[in-house]
Structure formats: structure tokens, C-alpha cells
Design a protein that fits this description.
With 572 residues, the protein is of the alpha/beta class. 30% of the residues lie in helices and 23% in strands. It contains 16 helices and 23 strands. Helix 2 crosses helix 8 and helix 7 packs across helix 9. The longest helix has 22 residues. It is globular.
Length: 572
């Protein structure tokens, strides 16, 4: 039985499901979990896999299919029960336009009570699954790096954002391979290999993880080689060779269904049936165990090194330059003019340009100067996306909020005069949005991911933002990353909740080092003699822990806009 609802709400969907269960005599007692599928492409393939898995794991399946570019916002739904849903029940949510920004609210009303939650991203994995608003409510978070546009880049950022409970199909595809290799290795006499080789498809994450697992388990450096046969048309691992003193263990895939295994003293080889696994088999296996797959985490950590020194994110970029102006007003005017020119150049190359705003006295003045500067530079402001580097976690209309300070001077003119769509203004949440501080930070990180802002988690040296504006406090802090504050060490997520801020209010949301450093241009806006010492220190070596202002650099330019008083202690 299939029922469709248009322009509906989560509560109406839940009510309709109850009515359908009563009508057809179905119940939820046998449901063992809620499976959330975040679809960005083909919905039917992962849905068919979930239906097949439901015969072993009866579940409520919630498919989230977002269409952010739809002109009209709204929510449509399709509910399937009975034979159309396998041994479970299915809800397909099609969120249009602005509705996609509240996916957690939509899903929350449809979760099975007291049942585990599993979230699956068949493609476009988030930068940090545990910090995603849907991932944060889940016991297990399943990604498929092989289905992403940049498989190895995705695997690298999944390593940086890894948390217990994460798993990836690139790892699940190796289950039978690992079992076979372990069985062959344990054939007596057992000895440590002197050489290990893995061959397979270039840039395939399963090949990389297989090599990482062997190196981690055996303590022997593993060499990754290209495919060892011509005309091979299947992806993944093609062969594994363990060279030992008594001979060589050689496992080679010969077709989609079998492996040829050769052991020391037996060069004839024996065929082992090992068909390539379907998507349904992969999700079924993942749902069999909801406890964390710690071996996956260990192998991921062994395969890709972590970035422990946060100075790394700012390193290797052009040195900053200074513009010294007479006062704060002159600083704001100069920064606004340069920002407008940089945004104009960005829009000549890309459909949209992304600008990060800041608070503080000079940041607010700069925002007020931007509408005129954008007009002068000929910027089509309707193609801009506005973000914030940080925000105070207080009421939505509090004067302490950075966004409130620019509503009348920047946001209103750009919307009324330049046609900037409301959806392009990415405001950080407040407590009035019904989220905790950590949930609000996760939500903002999700918005960045959905727009492509996870670039810094894929490959260092690539920019998402075009311009980042930053103020600086007398202590050298930027955004809400304070000197020697433990929260500044959090780099696994795009945005974090900051607690115990040394500057009131105590709770804030801030972008993190890798994200702030993913900009083509950075402008630091500084005025006042009380900031002269911090400005001097910020011009020295990159030192995020003690001098945060020193640790954000643009890929193309970094400019310090200072008034005469703030520049008083600069060398020369």
C-alpha cells in the first residue's frame, strides 16, 4: 500500500502512518531499528537494498530526499506499508527549498521509540558523520566513500571526523577478502611476511583500506600496485600477495564470482567462490551489528595520519600584507572596497560567491559599508551566500548577536535592493530554535556540507569561501577561538559549540581552523590601541594556541586592515 501526501508536515505524516497501520492491521512491535537514508541522487537503489535487508532486520526506513534549489519550499511524502515495504515500513520525505534546513525536526517525529537509529549516506558523505544533525542522533553512521565524487578525499576527511560508531561500505566490501586472507595466513607453518602487496583499482578506497589493514595487522609495509591483469572491468581489490620465507601466498580475483588461492608449495591454485557483494548484502551485514566497528577505526587511523598541529591549516600560504588607515571608519571602508572587488572577481569565475561576516565594532562598520561597495564594484548580490565566522548563543534578537548588528545595515538592503534570497543568508541558530549548543553547531556544519563547504576536509589547499572577514580581540582571539582555550583544538567538525568563553556570553558557535583556513582571501579588521600588542603578535610565527589571530591565512591573500593606533607596535 502506497500513500502520497503533498505540502504536508511531519505530524500529518505520522498521523497518516498510524491510520494506515490500523487499517491494514500492521504494527511496529517487530521493528528493530530506524534506518535513515540520506539520498542526494537515485533513491530507488538504496531503497531496494533496504527493503531486501528488512527481511532480516524489520525496520522503519526514512528516506530523506532534499531538493534545496526548488523555487517553492515545502514537504511531500510517500508512505509505503505492506508488500510495498518488505518486512518494514517506508517513509520517503521530499524536502523542497528551505525545508531542507530542518531535516532533524522532520525526522524526529517519525523515529521509532526506544529503538536504535542508523543513518546511511549512499553518497556525499558528511565531513564528520557524528557532527551531522542526523548522524548525531544515531548509534551507527554508514557512509560509502566509493560512491562519492572524490573517494580517497572522502576517506581522508572521514578519518579526520571519525567517531566510534562510524563505518563505511569500502570497509564492508572487504569482509570476505579479510576472512580469506586470514585463513590463508594461518596455514602452517605461520610466519611473518617479508613483503606484502595489494593490487587493485586506482583511487579505490577498499584497496587503500585493505593495504592499511594488512600493514596494521602484520606490521609490514604494504605496497599498493595497479591492477595486475588486462581487461579487468571490476572495481576494488584484485589481488593480495604475502611473500614469506617458505613461499608466497597469492590470492587473485579472476572474475566477479571467484578467487584463485595459491599457497606455499601449491602453485596449482584452488578456486574459492567469493562473489562480489551487492548493496543489499552490505547494508544487511552492517545492520547485524550495531556496536562500533573499532577495527575499522583503527585501520582508518593507521592509513591516514591525523593533523595534530592546528598551525598546519594556515601553513604554506602567502605572507600577510598590511593596510594602515587613519581610524576605524577608514578601516571599514577599505576592507569593504577590497572585499567587493574580490567578490566581483569570484563571480566572474563561479556561479556563486561565499562571504564570511564577523562581529565587533569594526566588523559591523565593514558590513554597513558593503552595500555601497558592492554596487560600486558591480557585484550581483543575488548570487552571494553570507555566512558567519561565529555567533553568540543567545536569543535571536539579542543585541549581542553578530547577525542582529548587521540586519538593517547589510541584510535588509541586499534583500530589498539587490534581490539577495533569504535562503542565501546562513544565520547561526539561537536557543529559540529548540537546539542545544552542540546540536546548533552540528546543524550549521551540515549547512556548510550541503553547500560544498566540506572542501577543507577533503583536500588541504582548496578553498570554499571567497572572503573571510575576521575581527580580533585584545587577547588575539578570532571568531570564538580563544587563546589556550580547549575548544579551539576541535578540528573534526566544521562548526563547534564553545563553552566557558573567557569573554561573555559563555556559550558560542564558531567555525573551526580547517574551515576558516579554506578561503581565497582573508581580511583581519583591527582598530584601537588596546589591540596593538595582539596585532604585533599576530604578525609573528603561526601560533594558534597562544595567538589565534596568527593562524588564519587565505590561499591567495591575507590582509591586515589596521588603524594607526592598532599598528603602533608593528615592526618597522
Amino acid at each position: 500500500m502506497i500513500t502520497t501526501l503533498t505540502d504536508t508536515t511531519a505530524s500529518a505524516i505520522n498521523k497518516q502512518m498510524i491510520e494506515m497501520r490500523e487499517t491494514f492491521g500492521a504494527n511496529t512491535i517487530g521493528r528493530v531499528l530506524t534506518l535513515i537514508i540520506v539520498a542526494t541522487g537515485d533513491v530507488e537503489e538504496p531503497l531496494e537494498a533496504a527493503i531486501a535487508a528488512s527481511h532480516e532486520h524489520p525496520a522503519r526506513v526514512i528516506v530523506v530526499d532534499a531538493e534545496p534549489e526548488a523555487e517553492k519550499s515545502g514537504l511531500d511524502a510517500e508512505i509505503r506499508v505492506g508488500r510495498d515495504a518488505g518486512a518494514g515500513e517506508i517513509v520517503i520525505l521530499r524536502a523542497r527549498g528551505d525545508v531542507q534546513w530542518s531535516l532533524d525536526t522532520l525526522v524526529m517525529a517519525l523515529l521509532l521509540p526506544d529503538a536504535p537509529i542508523v543513518t546511511w549516506w549512499p553518497e556525499n558523505a558528511p565531513s564528520s558523520p557524528v557532527h551531522d544533525v542526523l548522524g548525531s542522533m544515531s548509534q551507527r553512521r554508514i557512509t560509502d566513500s566509493a560512491g562519492c565524487q572524490d573517494p580517497l578525499g572522502t576517506l581522508k576527511r572521514l578519518r579526520r571526523g571519525y567517531a566510534s560508531g562510524d563505518s563505511d561500505f569500502a570497509w564492508a566490501r572487504l569482509t570476505r577478502w579479510r576472512g580469506l586472507v586470514a585463513s590463508a595466513f594461518e596455514v602452517p607453518p605461520i610466519s611473518t611476511p617479508t613483503k606484502v602487496e595489494v593490487s587493485g583499482t586506482v583511487d579505490n578506497p577498499s584497496v587503500v583500506l585493505m593495504a592499511g589493514w594488512l600493514e596494521h595487522a602484520l606490521g609490514v609495509e604494504t605496497e599498493v600496485l595497479p591492477p595486475n591483469g588486462e581487461g579487468v572491468d571490476y572495481a576494488g581489490v584484485h589481488s593480495v600477495r604475502l611473500v614469506r620465507e617458505d613461499g608466497t601466498i597469492d590470492l587473485t580475483r579472476v572474475d566477479d564470482a571467484s578467487i584463485v588461492m595459491k599457497l606455499p608449495g601449491d602453485d596449482t591454485g584452488q578456486h574459492v567462490t567469493m562473489p562480489r557483494r551487492t548493496l543489499a548484502e552490505l547494508i544487511t551485514e552492517e545492520l547485524r551489528r550495531l556496536d562500533p566497528d573499532e577495527v575499522y577505526g583503527e585501520v582508518l587511523a593507521a592509513t591516514y595520519s591525523s593533523i595534530d598541529d592546528t598551525a598546519t591549516f594556515a601553513g604554506g600560504k602567502p605572507d600577510p600584507v598590511d593596510q594602515v588607515l587613519s581610524d576605524a571608519d577608514a578601516v571599514a571602508a577599505a576592507a569593504a572596497a577590497q572585499t567587493a572587488q574580490q567578490l566581483a572577481a569570484a563571480l566572474e569565475q563561479r556561479p556563486y560567491a561565499h562571504l564570511v561576516l564577523t562581529g565587533g565594532t569594526v566588523g559591523t562598520k565593514t558590513a554597513a559599508a558593503l552595500p555601497a561597495a558592492l554596487r560600486t564594484a558591480g557585484v550581483d548580490a543575488s548570487r552571494l551566500h553570507l555566512w558567519w565566522g561565529d555567533e553568540r548563543f543567545v536569543g535571536p534578537d539579542s543585541e549581542e548577536r553578530n547577525e542582529v548588528g548587521v540586519r538593517e545595515s547589510l541584510l535588509a538592503p541586499l534583500q530589498a535592493e539587490a534581490g539577495l534570497p533569504a535562503r542565501n543568508i546562513h544565520v547561526m541558530p539561537s536557543p529559540a530554535d529548540g537546539m542545544s549548543l552542540d546540536d546548533a553547531a552540528a546543524w550549521y556544519g551540515q549547512q556548510l556540507d550541503q553547500m560544498g563547504g566540506d572542501q577543507p576536509f577533503r583536500t588541504r589547499g582548496r578553498a570554499f569561501f571567497d572572503v573571510v572577514l575576521l575581527g580580533m580581540g585584545p587577547d588575539g582571539h578570532i571568531a570564538s577561538l580563544f587563546p589556550e582555550h580547549p575548544d579551539q583544538r576541535q578540528v573534526a567538525a566544521s562548526a563547534i559549540g564553545v563553552t566557558d568563553s573567557p569573554k561573555p556570553p559563555a556559550e558560542r558557535i564558531s567555525l573551526t581552523w580547517p574551515v576558516l583556513n579554506s578561503s581565497r582571501h582573508v581580511a583581519l579588521l583591527v582598530a584601537g590601541g588596546e589591540k596593538a600588542e595582539a596585532a604585533r603578535d599576530g604578525h609573528q610565527d603561526i601560533n594558534p594556541w597562544q595567538v589565534p589571530a596568527s593562524a588564519v591565512r587565505g590561499l591567495e591573500t591575507t590582509t591586515w586592515f589596521l588603524d594607526a593606533a592598532a599598528s603602533g607596535q608593528l615592526p618597522g
